[in-house]
Amino acid sequence: MRGSLWSSFKTLHLFKSVLKSNPALSRSCSSGYVSQIRYLMRLKEDDEACREALKSGRFLLYYNFAPLLQKSNNSVYKPAFLKSSDLVKILEKVGKDKLFINESVLLGCAENGEAQFSLEVGDLDRSTLEQQCGGAFVDLRKAFFMLNGQDTPLVAKGQSLLRWHQTNGFCSATGQPTVRNQSGSHRICHSSGITYYPKMSPVVIVLVSDGSRCLLGRQAMFPPGMYSALAGFCDMGESMEEALHREVAEEVGLEVETLQYSASQHWPFPQSSFMVACHATVNPDKTQVSIDKAELEDARWFTFKEITEALQIKKPPRNPKGEPALFWVPPSYAIANQLIQEWANQQQLSRK
């Protein structure tokens, strides 16, 4: 019965996840989405069309990769997108030529056809910019706790694209400077003819269960008390399944028996990762954890009750001095939170 419930739950969740992450599937009869995507592709490939879109687009500023946020009247934080005309005026006030706007990188295209761009302004005066824009530059990790789920992917994408351009200014084959196209969708080394595209590193992230408990680990760099699902980069030549089996064996000394795909997500840290999230099971009679201390500071099994309580914590808890850190899990935007929530939901169903 438990296996049947789990299978039904996962099938339903996977269908919902696909619809949520792919608007085209939920509105396949609408030509609006197709037109939007094809316009976006034109902006990526046609420099002249992109330059024209800059004149009427909206811009999200980043200060050393920290996005500009604004607080609305109902105390909700949003990305502070600026109109092209407003941005030009602000740049002039801080002594920057209006052509600086051409350094922007194409982010996406809104449903109304308005092009969206990201722009790094780290060499300008921060306080003046914040005053002129009516917002504040916020570290991206902190911003994840302040933004709603709809805004976070776009803000994360903007930072990742800007960071990629910063670290790919030279050709790895010749050492010569690379040149970006107007949209920032690629860079070219004219000496070698090599074209470089923004890329993500594949990472498997897995929530391991023995049937009644789930296994979470923490690295030394994590905030006090926070535990998460196990994760690791895929090695060259590995399949997702092979990487998952290897990571669990390496980090906690357990052998995975079954695994099931859940969802995927772009994650901007440390240098833009493509997270492939899965659930995995181990033999309930073989759950002794052997931690690789080079990878993890700690790893342990958590009960349904402990997980349920941790999911109620929406912000990093403040731990009284001298007391043990309170157990909590990553924020709702992180795919690790989704895995943990799915496991808790499945446990609740099986208990009924």
Short description:
By secondary structure, the chain is an alpha+beta fold.
Description of the structure:
- By secondary structure, this protein is of the alpha+beta class.
- The protein has helices at 2-21, 23-26, 31-45, 47-54, 84-93, 126-133, 140-143, 152-167, 240-252, 304-311, 335-351; strands at 58-63, 66-71, 77-79, 82-83, 105-109, 115-120, 136-137, 179-180, 187-188, 195-196, 201-209, 214-218, 230-233, 256-267, 273-282, 298-302.
- A hairpin with a 5-residue loop joins strand 14 and strand 15.
Q: How does the helix and strand content classify structurally? A: alpha+beta
Based on CA atoms alone, the radius of gyration comes out at 23 Å
Portion in strands: 15-25%
Describe the main β-sheet briefly. 7 strands, mixed
Keywords:
6-stranded mixed beta sheet, globular, 11 helices, alpha+beta, 352 residues, disordered N terminus, 35% helix, single chain, 7-stranded mixed beta sheet
Architecture blueprint of SSEs:
Elements lengths: L1 H20 L1 H4 L4 H15 L1 H8 L3 E6 L2 E6 L5 E3 L2 E2 H10 L11 E5 L5 E6 L5 H8 L2 E2 L2 H4 L8 H16 L11 E2 L6 E2 L6 E2 L4 E9 L4 E5 L11 E4 L6 H13 L3 E12 L5 E10 L15 E5 L1 H8 L23 H17 L1
Parallel strand pairs: 1-6, 11-15
Antiparallel strand pairs: 1-2, 1-4, 2-3, 2-7, 5-6, 8-9, 9-10, 11-12, 11-13, 12-16, 14-15
Helix pairs in contact: 1-11, 3-4, 10-11
